[in-house]
Each structure stands twice: as C-alpha cells, then as structure tokens.
C-alpha cells in the first residue's frame, strides 16, 4: 500500500506471481513454473499472460524430459534448436511471439544451446555439418541483442563458411551494435557482393544500411521496390561511399569476378528490357563491375580498365552513373 492506502503494483499478488513465472521460465525451471501457474489460475484464470505462460512452460517441461537422456554437446544443442523451431511455429499459431513468456523461453533455450555448442567445440565434436544451427543461433542472439554472443557464434561458423551472405550480414549487424563500425562495414560490403537475396533486411537495423534504403526510397525516379531493394543497395552504397572499408582483392578473386561478369553478360544479351526488369541481372552486373572498378582504382590502377568499366556502367544505368562519374576524375 502507498501512504494513501491505495493498492500499488507491488501489492498485486497476481503480478508478482506472473513475474516469478517469467523468471522460472528464463531459468529453465519449467516444472516449478507449471506448478506456480496452477496456483495462479486458481486465483484468476483470466489474468493477462497466464495462458501463454502455461502453454510455454508445459511445452518445454515435456521437451526437457526427453532431453535428459542426451549427452552434453552437439546432440543436446541440435535437439534444443530443432525443438525451438517447433515451438516457434506453435507460438506463431497461438499469437504468442510478442509475449513475455515467449521471450523468456527464447533467452533460456538459446543460451542453453550456446552452452552445449561450446561444449561440442571444446570437445572437438563434429559441428561442421551444423552450419544452419549455428546461423540460427547467431540470428537468435542478434534478436536478443546479445551481440557479443552472436559474434562469437558466427565467427566460428565463418571459419568453415566464408562466403555466406546471410552469415556475413548478421555478423555485420552484430559488429555495428557492438561498436566496431569498420568490421561492420566490411562485412556488409562483402555480404551484398556474395548474394543480396540471402540477406534478411528485416533483421538489419544498422544505420548505414537503413540510410542507404532511405536514399533509395527517396529516389523518385527509381523503380526499385521492397522486392529488389537488397539487389540495389550495393550500387547506392558505392555512390554514397557508405561501405568504405575494404580488404584487398586477390588476383584469383578478380578472375572469379570477371568470370561472373562474363556469364551475366551472356544472359543480359539474350533478354529484352522487360525481361531484364523481371530479373536481378542488371543490379548483379552493376555490383560485380563496381568491385572491379574499385580494384583498378585503388589496388592495381589501370586508366583503360577504369574507363571501360565506367562506360559499361553508364550503359547499364545511365541515370544512376552518368552524373556520378561526371563529378569524378579518373
């Protein structure tokens, strides 16, 4: 009670009880959570959060009974992540994904899975086939704003999978929020080069990328929409010097880029303008040419190659590049 004898939140036994339940779920004590919920439901079965919490605690109580026979490490981590996928679908069907109980369970399951992945790594258990699990785990830590854990998880995964755009973009996002802007910009640049279609823009909140998206949306003469937004981000980022952190491109990488350009150009020549507009060929060509342009401008200067690439980029998108190159000297 306060001084005037009014009921305060701290005096509400139901509120205290449901908060205890959330703590139990986050701590993995699902049996205790179910028992406490039974008590609370006897007092007020319609109290907000009780039903969602009961469904959550009951689901994981049953899964933990099944999990008890698994050895620590990879098997337990895999089991937890598979069960999370099932729970997530169940939670979506019950409209529970924005609830406190859901978030408490998410914290517990992901931290627990991370602990078992660490055991697997230390014991040198086979984790090379678990890329999707590591990627999911990294995504989960990102959603929980546990950026250090996201980085630790995905840097390990990157040691075996260096050219995965989704992984690189999540790493870039985590590095941005952890305060390492250079690494963030480097990984964003490489992610959008590898495959823009793999990048979930819904996960990306980093200001540099959101700024580029805003620039594109404000371009009234552009036909870019949400469907092909990711494909054009590298071009607009280049023009606006957003992804300005680079690592040196090797000669082998240059040869790979040239082969990719060659194959894209063949397809480009076969299609009409309407057909091209229905594909990602033009933005992909632009992206590859910009990487070559960067190489010949900053690493292996070649006036001839720079001139040819600029000319080709203007033909691919005159509106975007003619004014830009007009302001720059070779």
Give the SSE map.
Blueprint (H helix, E strand, L loop, with lengths): L12 H15 L2 H14 L6 H18 L6 H20 L6 H23 L8 H13 L3 H12 L6 H13 L3 H14 L12 H12 L10 H11 L11 H20 L2 H5 L3 H18 L4 H14 L1 H9 L4
Structure description:
With 330 residues, the protein is mainly α. It has a domain at 215-330. It has 16 helices and no strands. Helix 8 packs antiparallel against helix 9 (181-194). The protein is elongated and about 80 Å long. The relative contact order is 0.05. Residues 5-9 have low confidence and may be disordered.
Query: What is the percent of helical residues?
Result: over 70%
Principal-axis shape equals: elongated
Q: N-to-C SSE series?
A: HHHHHHHHHHHHHHHH
Provide mean pLDDT, rounded. Answer: 90
How big is the Rg? 26 Å
Strand content: under 5%
Low-confidence stretches: 5-9
- Based on secondary structure, the structural category is mainly alpha
Determine the number of helices (DSSP H or I, runs of at least 4 residues).
Answer: 16
Q: Biggest sheet, open or closed, and with what strands and sense?
A: none
Question: How many beta-strand elements?
Answer: 0
N-C termini distance? 75 Å
Short description:
By secondary structure, this protein is mainly α. It contains 16 helices and no strands.
